[in-house]
Amino acid sequence: MAPRTLILLFLSLALAAAAGYSNWRFLIAAAENEPQSAEPSPLQKVVVARADLRISQPMNSLMLDVVDWPARLAPKGTFERVADVIERIPRRHFAPGEPLLESGLFGKGALAGLSPLIENGRRAMSVKVDEVIGIAGFVSVGARVDVLATLRRTVESEAFSQVILQDVRILAVDRALEPRETDSDDRVSVVTLEVSPEQAKKLAFASSQGSIQLALRSPGDTDLAPTGSVGTPNLKGEEAPKRKRSHEVTVLRGLERSSQKFLGGELVPSPANLSTAGLSPYDFLGIPPSALTNSQRRDN
């Protein structure tokens, strides 16, 4: 082999060795500069739902599970033991695998069912509905409605309609305490409304004396509109007869003092069946005594 060829061969080997050494040093330096892997996060015990937990549904140990949860990712208000939540009632729905939170449970001692959902000072009252009254099944838990009543002042008189309640919250539909699925075909037969004691009296009277209708409200509509009764004259474009005002007169007989109510110039008797409820049908409907039936004329 010629000397020139040997020189070129040795030079090529030297350059290859230098390149390999440089690459090796680069890889070593890159490995040394890589950040060390983070230490695993500590774990803590968290109580989660094993099955769907419905609103106001009693829980048992079979519905719950305890899992390891990264401590830095655990939400506030979790529980570590099943015994801490076994006697609590869900305030909202929990999906399987979801941690149970203090804010999502009623306080200790709360009963299951509808009662924990009722606000203080309010009452739950159920009314029977059908496909028409229940707005073709579109009523849902949490929706707000107005209640209209259609009544007759006497058996022979024409009916009239009036809005008796506005912006009333629906607590339950049949026995369901959660909103129904939009494609549900279940028929609604009973709707439970959250009302004040005074509203409960109006609703009970209207339900027993006539028929009621629900009117669905927009979620953001909380305005209470002024309303009046509507009857046949209104539909015909005629002026509706003015409602007669009632007046209370104090009667003195010696040392005895009593009060009597007059409506349209006629004395109004006090029916025994409604006086204790604090609601007079004459005040509610504006019925003069001359238009009452014999059963409505009974005094205390």
Please give a structural write-up.
The protein has 300 residues and is of the alpha+beta class. It folds into 3 domains: 43-104, Alpha-Beta Complex (Type Iii Antifreeze Protein Isoform Hplc 12); 118-232; 246-297, no CATH class. The protein is built from 5 helices and 11 strands, in the order αββββββαββαβββαα. Strands 3, 4, 5, 6, 7 and 8 form a 6-stranded antiparallel β-sheet that branches. It has a 3-stranded antiparallel β-sheet with strand order 9-10-11, with no helix packed on it. Strand 9 and strand 10 form a beta hairpin. It is elongated, with a radius of gyration of 38 Å. The model is unreliable at 271-300 (pLDDT under 50).
Quick take:
This protein has 300 residues and is of the alpha+beta class.
How are the elements arranged and paired?
Elements: H1 3-33, E1 43-49, E2 64-70, E3 123-128, E4 144-152, E5 159-173, E6 190-195, H2 197-209, E7 211-216, E8 230-231, H3 232-235, E9 246-253, E10 256-263, E11 266-268, H4 272-275, H5 281-285
Antiparallel strand pairs: 1-2, 3-6, 4-5, 4-7, 5-6, 5-8, 9-10, 10-11
Query: What would the average pLDDT be, to the nearest integer?
Result: 76
Q: Count the E strands.
A: 11
Q: Secondary-structure element sequence? A: HEEEEEEHEEHEEEHH
What Rg, in angstroms, do the CA atoms define?
Answer: 38 Å
Largest sheet: 6 strands, antiparallel
Unreliable stretches covering 5 or more consecutive residues: 271-300
Shape summary: elongated
Our count of domains comes out at: 3
Gap between N and C termini, in Å?
140 Å
Structural class category: alpha+beta
Q: How many distinct helices?
A: 5
Q: Roughly what percent helix?
A: 10-25%
Which strand-content bin applies to the residues? 25-35%
